[in-house]
Design goal:
Elements (H helix, E strand, L loop, with lengths): L4 H11 L8 H17 L1 H27 L3 H32 L10 E8 L4 E2 L10 E13 L2 E4 L3 E7 L1 H4 L6 E9 L7 E7 L4 E3 L4 H20 L2 H12 L7 H10 L9 H17 L4 H18 L4 H19 L2 H18 L7 H15 L1 H10 L4 H25 L1 E3 L2 H26 L3 H9 L2 H16 L4 E3 L3 H18 L3 H24 L8 E5 L7 E7 L2 E7 L3 H10 L4 E2 L2 E2 L5 H4 L2 H5 L3 E2 L2 E3 L5 H14 L2 E4 L38 E4 L32 H13 L3 E3 L5 E4 L2 E7 L19 E6 L2 E5 L5 H10 L6 E3 L10 H7 L3 E4 L12 H9 L3 E4 H4 L2 E6 L2 E6 L21 E4 L2 E7 L8
Parallel strand pairs: 5-7, 13-15, 14-16, 15-17, 17-20, 18-19, 24-25, 25-26, 26-27
Antiparallel strand pairs: 1-3, 1-6, 2-3, 3-4, 3-5, 6-7, 6-8, 9-10, 11-12, 11-28, 12-13, 21-22, 22-23, 23-24, 28-29, 29-31, 30-31
Helix pairs in contact: 1-14, 2-3, 2-4, 2-12, 3-4, 6-7, 6-16, 6-17, 7-16, 8-18, 9-10, 9-11, 9-16, 11-12, 11-13, 12-13, 13-15, 14-15, 15-16, 15-19, 16-17, 16-18, 24-25
Length: 923
């Protein structure tokens, strides 16, 4: 559609609009000077300050000359440069002074020692992602130092500190709370005016109460969380407080991961968008009530102050308030000439109040995104409107595209990942984000005085929340939604060059047509392969080893659409994608071999969209978390007591699980269990306090905590996450040990290790040898699953009986802890190694590969082959891989093959055949 004269006039008017950029050099100069002083030290900051003063003197001479000779252009340049140099000198000097104060702080003399500390919490505790379900939940708490010392020697000193702590007591602290605790002092990890990093060694002791306004903010946030939980489904209830006030306490890891992949993670923190939406709604209301400009301005200022208090008045929220106010100014006035100076003034003011923002990635993203909305979005929207787009979709797409384009280089530098669906996802959710924010803000206000009314208000957010979560979920599930690219400064610089080149090239119609044709051709070729994936999974597949990165994730097929899953990798996304590609809808048994993150952190991805009958672990791993989960459930939820599937020991009757049925089936002879509601916690049958007999594989006791006697505290984050996910889905938790046998159709499982004796220690560094070891009887032969067992456990298993198997899942990703004696005892024809591409651990180790080669064993590896699927029978095995293996390097000796094989290419999937007497696959 061609643009008419009116449209051309609109575009021309926008393009020729002159922007007032006089404050831009000053803002950039202050920013750069502060960065130099904070990151490079007070000496560098002092040098910058002196240099700026010298340049300012020279510019003063130029200004006098320009005024004397009436050179207007030179006068403007001299005035702008003079202001920039003077402001830069001031900010460099201020930054140098603060950095010198940090470097000479008396607390730094205590590096490596333990001290008692008095500090005031300045922000809510942020959880660190758990490293395994045997570790404790860790928290990052920012605080302001007041006093420190040991014994009778105390020193009063201020400064910003970061506390790394364990225990639920830290999560319950509110900003403004004065606390006392003991901690080990260490050097801060970042140069951001932080005095020290403290590793707390005990629980905090509260002193007094927080200020009244902090208590008010905590009350509002708490009321909003409770009203959301009563009005919305669990997933939406955890997301709504994050969208409105940045409260991520109840936000699930699954939603967090989906938002990151879809490029929507900015919605889960307090940003300028929150203030923009609230202020726009307020000003629209005042206009509807015919209020004057003074009343409107006063109301807007009051709302901004109230919002800052509720969302916590830390530097990031102050930054969001400033950026949001500037955006409102640009949108409501339509005058970018006013918005750009306002943005620059906001940057200068924020850096003056909080110099540490200069090195904050959030601050940089906010400033850049706001600048994109001011400089690019209006002209892009007008360009689209001139070509026939309606106003609303044109503005939505222009805003999403502008924010993505200007922040892309920094996102690449920070994360090394690009979301290819970010523009589309943001454009799709833009119409509902404002509605959700307004409903949430009204609900928060109503909840302060009438909880029931707030529930009704927040109930109105169900439809838009459903849309938002649906878009995020489907966008994250798109194959290739996020791609990994080189990060760091070099990656960011390359991304910036590419962005500038593409944006500049798109100004010419011929370039746009060429890129459109190229994109269409690539889509025609790649989309059918990425989405349809013909021939995957291959018919009759027996075992799949998923490419989950540096970790383990395997699926043992027991019926069409059903599989026993053994470990779930370190990340929910690749595990979910792998099981989706395998078309797994039902998991009769999900086994977590041992408590390390690379085996259990992807649990949410395995559970997503699938029915699971039971989750199994080794003895003792889950008991403390289950006890806490059901203790909380007894106080706050309806508890459903259900029997769990129970494996049998040798000699006992062994019913088979009807895993092929679509309804939930017993895992190994247990009764069919009804599906429970998402708000119920499933606890085992039995009287409170009853402990299963040693070796009993019923669900573990939910009241006794065996781990507490081992020196573990009562807050183990990873294990509690497993218990929470299982409880929310109504999945029983059970324990397996040597001697248990289970049958799933034609597949039989026998547990070889560990023993039924509960370990005396559950230390994380001993978890590998506590791995569940199982041998499966399948149509493709026997398969030995080994978890991460090391030399000692391998020796025990070899001495315990016959461990021969046709297929071996190599222990511990092929590390050097796998012994040649163990490999000879197993004697596998095919070895599977699950390791991440380019991992820093050197997995698999060359000595293990050499030992397998000496046995004539074929090796399949996820780091070079991608997903690996085993098909065929014991007499005729085949592997199907999702990645074409690169030819061997010339400096490596070629392997000596014992037989001949053949390779059949089917699209992107490669099939290799192994017959009876051939021990290696010809790749």
């Amino acid at each position: 559609m061609s643009a008419g004269p009116q449209g051309e006039a609109v575009v021309a008017d926008v393009e020729h609009q002159v922007l007032d950029m006089r404050l831009v050099p000053a803002a950039l100069g202050c920013w750069v000077a502060t960065i130099v002083a904070v990151t490079m030290g007070w000496v560098a900051g002092s040098v910058v300050a002196v240099g700026a003063v010298v340049v300012a003197i020279g510019l003063w001479v130029v200004l006098l000359w320009a005024m004397a000779h009436r050179r207007e252009r030179w006068r403007v340049v001299a005035v702008t440069g003079l202001a920039t140099m003077l402001l830069g000198a001031g900010f460099a000097a201020a930054g140098a002074w603060q950095e010198h104060h940090v470097q000479s702080h008396p607390l730094r003399e205590s590096f490596g020692r333990s001290v008692n500390v008095f500090a005031v919490v300045t922000d809510d505790a942020k959880p660190m992602r758990a490293g395994g379900f045997g570790g404790e939940r860790r928290w990052i708490v920012r605080a302001g130092l007041r006093e420190f010392g040991h014994g009778r020697e105390w020193t009063q000193a201020g400064g910003s500190i970061v506390v790394l702590a364990q225990g639920s007591e830290w999560a319950e602290l509110s900003p403004g709370q004065l606390v006392r605790f003991r901690a080990e002092v260490s050097e801060p990890s970042r140069a951001d005016l932080t005095v020290a990093t403290l590793r707390a060694t005990d629980a905090p002791k509260r002193i007094g109460e927080p200020p009244w306004w902090q208590r008010l903010a905590a009350s509002v946030r708490s009321d909003l969380v409770e009203a959301s939980a009563a009005a919305l489904p669990p997933t939406a209830a955890g997301l709504l407080p994050a969208l409105v006030v940045g409260d991520t306490v109840a936000l699930s890891e699954e939603v967090r991961d989906a938002f990151e992949v879809a490029g929507l993670q900015h919605l889960c923190v307090v940003s300028g968008a929150n203030f923009t939406i609230v202020l726009t709604a307020l000003l629209a209301l005042t206009r509807l009530l015919t209020a004057g400009p003074r009343i409107s301005a006063a109301a807007a200022a009051g709302v901004v102050v109230l919002f800052v208090v509720i969302a916590r008045p830390d530097p990031s929220v102050l930054r969001a308030a400033a950026m949001g106010s500037v955006t409102v100014l640009a949108l409501l006035t339509g005058r970018r000439k006013q918005a750009l100076p306002a943005l620059c003034a906001a940057v200068i003011g924020l850096l003056a109040v909080a110099p540490e923002l200069a090195v904050s990635a959030g601050f940089a993203l906010s400033v850049i995104a706001t600048a994109g909305l001011i400089l690019l979005a209006p002209s892009w929207a007008d360009w689209l409107r001139a070509r026939g787009w309606w106003r609303a979709p044109a503005e939505i797409v222009a805003v999403s595209a502008a924010a993505f384009v200007v922040t892309l280089p920094l996102m690449v530098a920070l994360s090394g990942r690009v979301s290819l669906v970010a523009i589309v996802a943001n454009a799709l959710v833009a119409p509902v984000v404002g509605l959700i924010t307004v409903i949430g803000a009204v609900g928060a206000v109503v909840a302060c005085g009438w909880g029931g009314g707030a529930v009704w208000v927040l109930w109105c957010a169900r439809p838009p929340m459903w849309w938002l979560l649906g878009v995020a979920d489907r966008a994250a599930a798109v194959p290739g939604a996020a791609v990994t690219v080189p990060g760091g400064a070099a990656g960011g610089a390359v991304a910036a060059v590419v962005v500038v080149a593409v944006v500049a090239a798109l100004r010419w119609s011929h370039t746009r047509r060429f890129l459109a044709v190229a994109a269409l051709g690539v889509s025609i070729v790649l989309l059918p392969v990425r989405f349809l994936q013909p021939g995957w999974p291959p018919p009759g597949w027996v075992l799949a080893m998923c490419d989950v990165g540096q970790g383990d994730g395997l699926a043992l097929s027991v019926a069409p659409g059903a599989a026993v899953v053994i470990d779930v990798g370190p990340d929910p996304r690749p595990m979910r994608a792998c099981l989706d590609r395998l078309r797994i809808a039902h998991i009769p048994l999900l086994v977590l071999t041992h408590p390390h993150a690379d085996h259990i952190n992807g649990l949410a991805g395995a559970l997503r969209g699938r029915t699971v009958d039971a989750i199994a672990t080794a003895p003792g791993e889950l008991r403390p978390a289950i006890a806490r989960t059901c203790a909380v459930a007894n106080r706050t939820h309806e508890v459903t007591s259900v029997p769990a599937p129970t494996p049998t020991a040798p000699g006992e009757p062994q019913p088979a699980a009807a895993a092929h049925q679509r309804q939930r089936a017993p895992t190994a002879g247990g009764p069919t269990r009804p599906r429970t509601g998402t708000d119920q916690v499933v606890c085992p049958s039995g009287a409170p306090g009853e402990r299963p007999a040693k070796g009993d594989s019923r669900p573990t006791d939910h009241t006794g905590s065996q781990r507490e006697s081992h020196g573990h505290s009562d807050d183990s984050g990873g294990v509690e996450r497993v218990a929470q996910l299982a409880g929310a889905a109504g999945i029983p938790l059970m324990e397996l040990h040597a001697g248990h046998e289970m049958t799933f159709g034609t597949v039989g499982l026998r547990v070889l290790a560990p023993s039924r004796e509960e370990p005396t220690s559950l230390a994380a560094d001993e978890a590998n040898d506590r791995s569940l070891v199982m041998r499966a009887r399948t149509p493709a032969g026997t398969i030995l699953f080994t978890g991460d067992i090391e030399a000692e456990a391998q020796d025990r298993i070899v001495r315990g009986g016959d461990v021969r198997a046709d297929i071996l899942k190599v222990p511990h990703h092929g590390s050097r802890t796998t012994t040649a004696e163990f490999l000879r005892a197993v004697g596998p024809r095919l070895a599977l190694v699950s390791a991440g591409s380019g991992n820093t651990f050197g997995h698999p180790h060359p000595t293990v590969i050499t030992a397998l080669a000496a046995l004539g064993t074929t090796v399949a590896r996820t780091d070079v082959d991608g997903d690996v699927v085993i098909v065929g029978t014991a007499s005729e095995l085949r592997t199907v891989t999702s990645r074409r293996r690169a030819p061997p390097a010339r400096h490596r000796p070629a392997p000596r093959w014992r037989g001949h094989g053949f390779r059949v290419n089917r699209g992107r999937w490669r099939v290799s055949r192994l017959s009876v007497g051939v021990r290696r696959i010809a790749w």
